[in-house]
Design brief:
The chain has helices spanning 3-14, 27-39, 52-55, 59-68, 77-89, 109-117, 139-155, 179-195, 211-228, 249-265, 285-300, 314-326, 332-342, 393-400, 402-408, and strands at 17-19, 46-49, 99-102, 122-125, 164-167, 200-206, 233-239, 270-272, 359-363, 369-374. With 411 residues, the chain is α/β, with parallel strands linked by helices. Strand 4 (122-125), helix 7 and strand 5 form a beta-alpha-beta unit.
């Protein structure tokens, strides 16, 4: 069964599917983390997060670390090889417990070979979202790498196996990227996946700074998926806030709860949670399980929104960005490269050489993410740009800590 089909079935039966971020180098410890996730009192999906060496294809450093017993910050799926990984998930992976491999690589071809060899077929990322924030790899090279990645996943399709790929474009930079661009990138990466053979796709959106704006944004994402990829077997996945996190337990739980409400009200099938330890360190397995069960409890108390959300123009902006990109080429990879070269796609505060760096986001008094500068983004007709004045360092720090202060209830 496809990861996407499993999520859809779990969501239909048990409400929102919740999923941790979790990765350990030791197979026994990784298996124990997956087992604990499966045993949580919630509809759950498992995560195998990979280590930093594997993400950049430094497999020799993985080999040395494993030989010396050095610590790694995730599971080295290539270094361990398919037999070790297959044994690690044996008896754990099941139709009621799908497992996704998460990495962060601009060139995941070895990772895909390793996960397919181990019997897994679900992962995430994208040619833009796993290139610009995390690497100096030229975008055109990342597009090539990800095209081959998609094709390798698609080639693994059988009557019983439907590989699944999740876009990470809806999470770019974690914060201060206005929602229209997040949605456009998520949709464009989904279209790229489809063009290279994937048929089961999830579309990401990371919780931002204002619940009403987030609800409008998730509705816009659903609308664009329906308009541009209605034939895909798809669902929306929400990420609990990825920026500076509240430092108090109460603040962290308030933020996690808000993300669970957003997922349910917005009609998402899956939520990637964060824990109360997020501001300080990598969470333990027990802290992850607590977060999963807390999010599931909040989700069960919420209902899907019945009224359309406010319309402040998020959909119009996202649609304009997608359309301008697609007009550049029928080859979506070439269109992505061309759009960044022209500034039609331009991620605020992103320092990658292929990003124009002419856009900026800011927070208004109500915590809505808005555009301070739009550079060459094709949204001049719909964007409300209030000031071209550069953001000061104090304003930037205040914006970065807005969610932390709001949910910790610091004046």
């Amino acid at each position: 069964m496809s990861f996407g089909d499993a999520v859809a079935r779990l969501a239909a039966r048990g409400g929102l599917v919740v999923q941790p971020r979790m990765g350990f180098a030791d197979p026994a410890r990784m298996r124990a983390g997956l087992a604990a996730t499966r045993a949580a009192r919630a509809a759950t999906a498992g995560t195998i997060t990979l280590d930093s060496y594997t993400r950049v294809n430094d497999h020799e450093s993985v080999r040395l670390a494993l030989h010396r017993g050095d610590a790694l910050n995730g599971f080295p799926i290539v270094g361990h090889g398919p037999s070790v990984t297959g044994a690690m998930i044996d008896g754990i992976a099941a139709p009621d417990f799908p497992i996704q491999v998460r990495h962060g690589s601009a060139d995941p071809r070895h990772i895909i070979a390793a996960l397919l060899g181990a019997g897994l077929d679900a992962t995430e990322g994208g040619p833009v979202s796993y290139c610009l924030p995390y690497s100096r790899t030229p975008l055109a090279q990342a597009v090539h790498n990800w095209a081959r990645t998609c094709e390798a996943l698609a080639d693994a399709r059988t009557a019983e196996r439907e590989p699944h790929l999740e876009t990470f474009g809806g999470c770019m930079m974690g914060q201060l990227c206005p929602p229209a661009l997040l949605i456009a990138l998520s949709v464009l990466e989904g279209l790229f996946f489809w063009q290279h053979g994937l048929r089961s796709i999830s579309f990401s959106y990371a919780q931002q700074t204002n619940p009403a704006q987030d609800e409008e944004s998730v509705a816009a994402l659903h609308r664009l998926i329906g308009e541009l990829l209605p034939q895909a077997r798809s669902h929306v996945v929400i990420y609990t806030y990825m920026g500076v996190f509240p430092r108090t337990e109460a603040g962290a739980l308030r933020l996690l709860a808000e993300s669970a409400r957003l997922a349910v009200r917005g009609g998402a099938a899956r939520l990637i949670v964060k824990t109360t330890a997020e501001a300080f360190r990598i969470p333990t397995v027990a802290e992850n399980v607590t977060a999963l069960e807390y999010a599931a409890t909040i989700a069960r108390q919420e209902l899907r929104a019945t009224r359309p959300p406010q319309d402040t123009g998020v959909y119009d902006q996202a649609r304009s960005i997608v359309d301008a990109t697609l007009e550049l080429s029928t080859d979506i990879g070439a269109a992505l490269v061309g759009a960044f070269a022209r500034g039609y796609l331009d991620v605020p505060y992103c320092l990658h050489p292929d990003n124009a760096g002419e856009t900026r986001g800011y927070l208004d008094a109500a915590g809505n993410l808005r555009w301070k500068r739009i550079g060459s983004l094709p949204i001049r007709a719909s964007a409300d740009v209030v000031s071209a004045r550069p953001m000061t360092s104090v304003e930037l720090i205040n914006s970065l800590s807005y969610v932390e202060r709001t949910y910790d209830r610091i004046p």
